[in-house]
Amino acid sequence: xxxxxxxxxxxxxxxxxxxxxxxxxxxxxxxxxxxxxxxxxxxxxxxxxxxxxxxxxxxxxxxxxxxxxxxxxxxxxxxxxxxxxxxxxxxxxxxxxxxxxxxxxxxxxxxxxxxxxxxxxxxxxxxxxxxxxxxxxxxxxxxxxxxxxxxxxxxxxxxxxxxxxxxxxxxxxxxxxxxxxxxxxxxxxxxxxxxxxxxxxxxxxxxxxxxxxxxxxxxxxxxxxxxxxxxxxxxxxxxxxxxxxxxxxxxxxxxxxxxxxxxxxxxxxxxxxxxxxxxxxxxxxxxxxxxxxxxxxxxxxxxxxxxxxxxxxxxxxxxxxxxxxxxxxxxxxxxxxxxxxxxxxxxxxxxxxxxxxxxxxxxxxxxxxxxxxxxxxxxxxxxxxxxxxxxxxxxxxxxxxxxxxxxxxxxxxxxxxxxxxxxxxxxxxxxxxxxxxxxxxxxxxxxxxxxxxxxxxxxxxxxxxxxxxxxxxxxxxxxxxxxxxxxxxxxxxxxxxxxxxxxxxxxxxxxxxxxxxxxxxxxxxxxxxxxxxxxxxxxxxxxxxxxxxxxxxxxxxxxxxxxxxxxxxxxxxxxxxxxxxxxxxxxxxxxxxxxxxxxxxxxxxxxxxxxxxxxxxxxxxxxxxxxxxxxxxxxxxxxxxxxxxxxxxxxxxxxxxxxxxxxxxxxxxxxxxxxxxxxxxxxxxxxxxxxxxxxxxxxxxxxxxxxxxxxxxxxxxxxxxxxxxxxxxxxx
Length: 732
Known about the structure:
Blueprint: H1 2-14, H2 16-37, H3 51-62, E1 72-78, H4 88-102, E2 107-111, E3 125-132, H5 141-156, E4 160-164, H6 177-193, H7 196-220, H8 229-258, H9 263-290, H10 298-329, H11 354-364, H12 366-381, E5 389-390, H13 402-414, E6 422-427, H14 433-445, E7 450-453, E8 457-458, E9 464-471, H15 478-488, E10 498-502, H16 504-538, H17 542-567, E11 583-584, H18 587-615, H19 620-648, H20 655-687, H21 696-701, H22 710-718, H23 721-724
Parallel strand pairs: 5-11
Antiparallel strand pairs: 1-3, 1-4, 2-3, 6-9, 6-10, 7-9, 8-9
Helix pairs in contact: 1-2, 1-9, 1-10, 2-7, 2-10, 4-5, 6-7, 6-8, 6-19, 7-8, 7-10, 8-9, 8-10, 8-19, 8-20, 9-10, 9-16, 9-18, 11-19, 12-17, 12-20, 16-17, 16-18, 17-18, 17-20, 18-19, 18-20, 19-20
């Protein structure tokens, strides 16, 4: 591996103009494909095989006029103080609004609040529910404008009017969080390298890789339906890892130049050594993301493969385009000529670096440091024991939005259950649906937490009926989940009738349950594959075990922090979190995949340098200190960059993106700065030489991938300079 990458780096350096031109052509093709083929992304989720989705499919076949899969909008009317909606002047306003809404684009039906009983007993609050012929993602701009116009005209008539439901969903505007992350990354790179050129190359390659990755993903949206979070996740992760991968190679290139090597040879050695670590670190991230496809959930598969593709592009760019750009930069990348930008090389400086001092301090008290780190993260992880999963709805909308106000008005006038009605589908023989539905309704009324059961609606064939069930509790509560299970247990109780529960609330419950069930199998697949990969990299059993244990500790602490902020509301105001509630159901499984990949990144980059020192003959404890000293500065800079990039997305308006950004940022903080930079050197010191133990039979069985480049170094050091160097003119 190292020898191949050495030759690849030298070749890219030598043919730098051709390599740069080829990547520019790839960029142009990706952007042209995105411009020509892109289609809108989706915000709705569905999982084939769940009861709620099967019920929607049945209704689409037998009861299409019900538009069970269509979007809904609840227009909530509230009368002024001392007045009621039944007053003639306000009733006319409501009637006009209902008539206008019925004529709006894409609307299939509208329930009049007075005839459907959707006015509370006091007559102060009522709502009209509109059902659309298309899902929420396909509601047109004209339909949105018509819905907003209906509400505005009713407000002009003297009523308080708010609108909720998934028909109100619009594409979120992209915030400036990623820009802030890039700016912070630039500052960190300048401080780390002391050179504008050295700082600029990782940013340049990262931006190019992201542009290519997002361009291809956007073009793919013309062929498959992608969730709205898919490109954002790819952008978030691709930007962070691309900067990190380039950072490690540039840092190693500067080390080789400082050792007196010619630029082309320095590039070859940098790609052969640091590039090997980049390949295996990238593979762990790609494995973790691609493994999302084994869960069997379509939108997770899309998100994982899209992000994995972007990471793969970042790896290839780091191994090919970056060496070419280093050829253009030459020795100028060392910097130090401009006031304020000079920085001492931590590997070659005469003074002891902070990283070495930190490693020595840990080595003197490894047990205390290890216990403090483990206990501290364990305490942070405690809130995760109360984690509840769900999907965002109007209950999690900001209080100052019309969706949040509509939710509160409905809860005030009718109870929280009216915000999440359940649709019960009764499948009976031809002509028997109405009688069977009546029997089912009677049984459902006897179940706890049922607020109301509507009259059955029957299709023309008389074999399918719909019942609307309003819970007493809100849509995201445990009581409503229990109610859904209790209703489903009635299946088969009425002879000749099968029942199923669907609707947005039931869909969210089913998706959350499916994702929760997938967590353990997914974790087993990811950890198993990555353990094998790390065993190849480090030729050890204990180091991969320690890496896995550290990951589990950091991900548990991350779950605890996410629950504390987004579910319990601790420090929510400081982070701009308007509403708290259940944790987005797909966040834990996404988090496991990404955090595992990133954790292994730092494990590979940091521990590889320790192993490199050990295989050079340094004793185990000094090898830990020396290896840590070599990698600490760059790993710390990489972690700060990742934290900055991820944390920038906390400023995003979308609650899901905000939670993902916070989770990934805090995960890197825990894993890189506490687990890898504190717990790992303590554990490696305690393990000593046994950390590198591998059974002899297994050592012979495993291929030697030479990640640390030891074989490459011996071959190059033994060869004459003329045998490996081709004179190449580079900038001084």
